[in-house]
Amino acid sequence: TAQIIDGKALSKTLREGFKTRVAQLGAQGVQPGLAVILVGDNPASRVYVGNKVKACEEVGVRSFHVGLAADTPEAEVLATIARLNADPAVHGILIQLPLPAHIDPRRVLEAISVNKDVDGFHLYNVGGLVVGNTIFPPCTPYGVQLLLDTTGTDVTGKNVVVVGASNIVGKPMALMLLQREATVTICHAKTRDLAQHTILADILIVAAGKPGLIVPQMVKQGAIVIDVGINRLRDGPNAGKIVGDVDFDGVKEKASWITPVPGGVGPMTVTMLIENTLRSAERALRMRQADDYQDWEAPVIHP
Ligand code: NAD
């Protein structure tokens, strides 16, 4: 039976380390700051934003919570971002998705300074992933990479199958592993015969949002299985329970390592958001000390 990859424990260790970095920045007169913009009052988004703010405070990162009404015009959201881009107390800017329908998410994401794009969703950072030189890796795949590292596995040449091809998880995950010279297959909802691909995976990463999608027959003996899915069961005997995309009880008998849900990838996402915010603050300080403001200024990117 598989060993458990404990994301909660790794998060805790990393967050302890963050306190030291916050203190080091503090000694140089910098308190790292993260601005979180929430447009509207989607209840799930509110919970996510609350978790991010709380996690920041626990390690000494200052949080700026900007709540905007659901009918805020796009121009006003862009003006808010421009203000935060110019604010030296803010090292990271995050806009909670999804946005109300009248706001173009791409336009908003592209307005964030690439130097403060701690979610890594700006085209500049996305492009950086393609060429293996991103400033801020997106948080969820970044967290998965650290979880994989804890197993001591070298991914070079391994068969990695990523199930899910979203812009925030599947695609960047695949690019990060390709950069590490894994042999990467990306599967998605249109993939024919999913099992034919997953059965070859030395490392199987699942981010589809479909409970029970991955059953033991689809998993190679000894595979490492990372379950990114977070699903709340609607009905059945376990209604209300949070589960991943993998049949955990079945698959753990075949895998060598497996992440639980909850307590696997989930806690790592917020941890990596803080990592990126600290890195941004350290980077800004370095640039300032090198008197290299010019370099630090955001490249101008035309839409
Ligand atoms: P998404 O809906 O944007 O993308 C889902 C992807 O899975 C798509 O590419 C789709 O083609 C594919 N897919 C759907 N059904 C499939 C099937 N039957 N077979 C193969 N592929 C299929 O979702 P997302 O934002 O990438 O999130 C995926 C899951 O991960 C969700 O459960 C989400 O809640 C969870 N998630 C968790 C974290 C975390 O912190 N742990 C972060 C982000 C997302």
From TrEMBL:
It holds the Pfam family THF_DHG_CYH_C. Its EC number is 1.5.1.5, 3.5.4.9. Catalyzes the oxidation of 5,10-methylenetetrahydrofolate to 5,10-methenyltetrahydrofolate and then the hydrolysis of 5,10-methenyltetrahydrofolate to 10-formyltetrahydrofolate. Keywords: Amino-acid biosynthesis, Histidine biosynthesis, Hydrolase, Methionine biosynthesis, Multifunctional enzyme, NADP, One-carbon metabolism, Oxidoreductase, Purine biosynthesis. Residues 5-119 form the Tetrahydrofolate dehydrogenase/cyclohydrolase catalytic domain. The gene is folD_2. Residues 138-283 form the Tetrahydrofolate dehydrogenase/cyclohydrolase NAD(P)-binding domain. Homodimer. NCBIfam families: PRK10792.1, PRK14186.1, PRK14189.1. InterPro entries: Aminoacid_DH-like_N_sf (IPR046346), NAD(P)-bd_dom_sf (IPR036291), THF_DH/CycHdrlase (IPR000672), THF_DH/CycHdrlase_cat_dom (IPR020630), THF_DH/CycHdrlase_CS (IPR020867), THF_DH/CycHdrlase_NAD-bd_dom (IPR020631). It comes from Zoogloea oryzae. Belongs to the tetrahydrofolate dehydrogenase/cyclohydrolase family. It catalyses: (6R)-5,10-methenyltetrahydrofolate + H2O = (6R)-10-formyltetrahydrofolate + H(+); (6R)-5,10-methylene-5,6,7,8-tetrahydrofolate + NADP(+) = (6R)-5,10-methenyltetrahydrofolate + NADPH. This is Bifunctional protein FolD. Pathway: One-carbon metabolism; tetrahydrofolate interconversion. NADP(+) binds at residues 164-166, 230. SUPFAM superfamilies: Aminoacid dehydrogenase-like, N-terminal domain (SSF53223), NAD(P)-binding Rossmann-fold domains (SSF51735).
